[in-house]
Amino acid sequence: MEAVIKVDKLKMGYGDRVIMECLDFEIKQGEIFIILGGSGCGKSTLLKHMIGLYKPMAGDITIKGKNIVKADAEKKRDIMKEFGVMYQSGALFGSMTLEENITMILEEVTDMSPQERHERAMEKLALVELDEFNTFYPAEISGGMKKRAAIARAMALNPDILFFDEPSAGLDPISAANLDALILKLREEFKTTIVIVTHELESIFSIADRIIMLDKETKRIIEDGDPRKLKNESKNEWVRDFLNRRESVQT
Ligand SMILES: Nc1ncnc2c1ncn2[C@@H]1O[C@H](COP(=O)(O)OP(=O)(O)OP(=O)(O)O)[C@@H](O)[C@H]1O
C-alpha cells in the first residue's frame, strides 16, 4: 500500500530546545497509527508538526506527496484540505449549533450553496449518529456527543486523513469504547488514514494497526510496530512495561 504521510529526518523543538530528532516513518493509506510515549515527550508537538501548525528545526513532512514543510501559505491551505483534525478539547464553537459548526467550514473553504452545505452537514452528523441534534448547541450535549460532533466537523471536507489528539480524554469507558468503534467504522467505510495521540491502552489494543513509541531521553522513536506483538516481543523493557501496565501506572 502507498504511504500517504512521510516523515523524513524530522527534528523538532521550541526555541533552541530540541524535543525529538531523527524521526523517520511512513503511514500507509487506511492505517490506524498511534503515537505513544511518556508524558511531555512530544506527542502533541509531533502531531502539530504533521498538520503544519509548527515548522520543524530540520527535516520534511509529506502529505499525499506534497511537502507541508516547504509549502508557501497558499499551497499549505491546499494540503490542509486533505486532512481533518480533532483537537484534545473537541473545540466546537459554543455559540454555534452542531450543524453551524460544520457549515461554517464549508462556507469558508468551498463554494457550496447553503442547501449543499446543509446536506453535507446532515450527512456528517448522521455518520456519527447526531443528525437529530443538528440544532443543539455544544453545551446541551454530553462529552461523548461533543467528541462525535467534532469528528463530524473534521470530516466536513471528506478528508482522506484524520488526526486526533487524545480523542477519549475525559470520557467514561463506555463513551471511549463507542468512540473507538466510530474510528474503526470510518476506516472501514472510507479507508481513512487515522493518526492518533492517546494514552488509552484499551484504544491502543482495540484499534491500532501500528504504534510508534517516542522516548524523551534519547529524543527518538524507540519502537515501531504492532502493539499486540510489541507487548510481549519488544526488546525494550520500558515499552513492554508501558503496554502491559494496568490502570494509572505513571507514564
Ligand atoms: N508552545 C510551546 N512552547 C514551548 N514548549 C512547549 C510548547 N508546547 C509544548 N512544549 C514543551 O514541549 C515538550 C513536549 O510537549 P508535548 O505537549 O508535545 O508532549 P506530549 O507528549 O504531548 O505530552 P502529554 O502526554 O503530557 O500531553 C514538553 O516539555 C512541553 O513543556
Overall average residue pLDDT: 92
Predict the CATH topology of the largest domain.
Rossmann fold
Query: What is the radius of gyration?
Result: 18 Å
Percentage beta strand: 25-35%
By CATH, the superfamily of the largest domain comes out as P-loop containing nucleotide triphosphate hydrolases
The name of the CATH architecture of the largest domain is 3-Layer(aba) Sandwich
Report a brief summary of the structure.
GO terms for molecular function: ATP binding; ATP hydrolysis activity. This protein is an alpha/beta fold and 251 residues long.
Folded structure, characterized:
With 251 residues, this protein is an alpha/beta fold. It has two domains: 3-82 and 159-244, 3-Layer(aba) Sandwich (Rossmann fold); 94-158, no CATH class. It has helices spanning 43-50, 73-80, 98-109, 114-127, 143-154, 173-190, 201-207, 227-233, 237-244, and strands at 3-14, 17-28, 32-37, 58-63, 66-67, 83-86, 161-165, 193-197, 210-215, 220-225. The chain has a six-stranded mixed β-sheet, sandwiched between helices. Strand 9 (210-215) and strand 10 form a beta hairpin. Helix 4 (114-127) packs across helix 5. The longest helix has 18 residues, at 173-190. The protein starts with a strand and ends in a 7-residue tail after the last helix. Residues 247-251 have low confidence and may be disordered. The chain binds adenosine-5'-triphosphate.
